[in-house]
Design goal:
5-stranded mixed β-sheet; binds adenosine-5'-diphosphate
């Protein structure tokens, strides 16, 4: 029972029913009020018209009575009666002719002759005022005085007409328009229902897909083929984009976990092999032990390096270490950084050149993070440039940005690999990288750091010719 009630409430709260309710409130209710007012006005109009008509008839009769001396001339009694009856039949009302004392002299229904009739309208007519009023029961009374040739009041023509005929006309119009109104309201209601369904159906589809996504089914897509181009199709499209992004994030996450496991498993396996080999050799010379332990030690170093890089990345991702921008002169900073790289370059006899800008360049940077990002790019350049190659670092700036380029004459990167080098654990040549000691995380860290500086990093490279990394950072950070 409760679930049925909740379902019903949900249904009534749904957009479809809200639209229908809006239609009833905005369309039907005002229309009902409007037609009611119209009919009331019509009713009043018809009553007024009927009053005018009755007064007209009473005036005609009054004129005839006066002109023909019906009230004094008994010889014309028959003619008088006929005149009264004809008027009554024609106009569908009752006619009473009264003398100046309010006594009924003639009555089209022949009921009240001789009786005294003193209703308000008759008294007013005797006061020489033509009057017509609708009574509480709907009957209309019209009274007009009869004047003789000397303008003396000699009586009153009193007409009593039921308003049924007026009401019948109005009611008939009302009945017919009510039928038309109900039919139209019903048809429009059905149309509204289907229109609301037409609008809400795609929304329901979008909602269903979002619910599935929230349950972890990121492969779900909304079919937008049948949808017209409007806000709903845009929403569906945005939803599909979101699903794609979520799917990418999920794949990246899975790849990352498997890469981490793989990267850590490799040094662990070699450590296992090394330690088992020592254990199997019962009385191996001390030098062999030292050699094996050195190998194990270098594997531990590698694992530490990977874990340190991972920690740096995670901290950068989670913005755990807050970025502290300090205005720093870039020429000097790069110069100092490169100084520390010279011993590495010298081992491979690589010429390390720095071309500074003549003017000083001040930029807002997080010194530690920025130095480690630039060091990583220079270290890579040294790592992937054969002996006796050359590396050139330049700095430049405009009004808004500082530009840095790190070019080498190294092995270069294949075109199809360029897009992937910023991915975590991505290494172009895995075997060589194990020799060079790379973790595949350095460029990811650099990329994250440059993004944190609201800058960008691009790569131009040609295999066997060399690589250039172009870094841009804004001079001023709006913190
Ligand atoms: P690694 O620690 O392996 O150097 P990085 O993330 O720093 O990891 O670099 C990713 C990959 O990009 C490297 O394995 C290498 O294949 C390629 N790479 C980076 N810099 C250069 C460069 N200057 N010249 C050629 N290849 C490069």
């Amino acid at each position: 029972m409760v679930t049925i009630l909740t379902k019903l409430r949900k249904k009534w709260n749904s957009l479809q029913w809200l639209l229908l309710l809006t239609y009833i409130l905005v369309g039907v209710v005002p229309l009902v009020l409007f037609t009611n007012t119209i009919f009331r006005a019509m009713d009043g109009y018809f009553v007024e018209e009927r009053k005018k008509e009755l007064l007209g008839q009473a005036n005609i009769l009054s004129g005839k009575i006066s002109a023909n001396h019906y009230l004094y001339d008994d010889t014309k009694w028959k003619q008088f009666n006929e005149e009264i009856s004809a008027a009554s039949n024609q106009g569908n009302f009752r006619v009473l002719v009264l003398d100046s004392c309010g006594i009924v002299i003639n009555d089209s229904s022949r009921q009240d002759v001789g009786k005294t009739y003193l209703v308000a309208e008759i008294i007013e007519a005797l006061d020489n005022k033509d009057v017509a009023n609708q009574q509480e029961d709907g009957t209309i009374y019209a009274a007009v005085s009869i004047l003789d040739e000397h303008s003396n009041k000699i009586g009153v023509v009193f007409i009593s007409a039921r308003s049924d005929d007026v009401s019948t006309t109005v009611n008939e119009i009302r009945r017919q328009s009510n039928i038309v109104f109900v039919v139209i309201a019903f048809i429009v209601g059905i149309l509204m229902y289907f229109m609301a369904k037409f609008f809400t159906e795609p929304l329901k589809k979008v909602l269903n897909i979002i619910i599935k996504m929230s349950e972890g089914h990121f492969d779900q897509r909304i079919d937008i083929k049948g949808l017209r181009h409007n806000e709903i199709s845009d929403l569906a499209l945005a939803c599909n984009h979101m699903a794609e992004k979520l799917e990418q994030v999920e794949t990246t996450r899975q790849n990352f976990v498997s890469n981490v496991s793989h990267e850590l498993k490799t040094p662990l396996s070699s450590m296992k092999v090394l330690s088992e080999s020592i254990l199997l050799q019962n009385d191996a010379p001390k030098e062999t032990y030292i050699e094996f332990l050195e190998d194990i030690n270098s594997e531990i170093d590698r694992m530490t390096e990977i874990i340190n890089d991972l920690l740096t990345l995670v901290k950068l991702d989670q913005k755990e270490v807050p970025i502290a921008f300090v205005e720093t002169e870039l020429n000097q900073l790069i110069k100092d950084t490169m100084k520390r790289m010279h011993p590495l370059a010298d081992v491979k006899k690589i010429a390390l050149t720095f071309i500074p800008l003549k003017e000083e360049i001040f930029a807002d940077i997080d010194k530690t993070k920025f130095i480690s990002a630039i060091s990583n790019l220079i270290e890579n350049a040294i790592k992937y440039t054969p002996e006796e190659g050359s590396i050139t670092v330049t700095v430049d700036c405009d009004h808004q940005n500082a530009f840095l380029s790190i070019s080498d004459t190294g092995i270069g990167i294949a075109e199809e690999e360029i897009g992937k080098i910023f991915e975590r654990f991505y290494r172009v040549d895995k075997t060589r990288d194990r020799e060079t000691g790379g973790t595949g995380l350095g460029l990811s860290i650099t990329h994250s750091t440059i993004l944190m500086h609201n800058g960008s990093i691009k790569v131009n490279s040609k295999e066997q010719e060399g690589t250039t990394f172009l870094v841009r950072i804004p001079l001023h950070q709006n913190v």
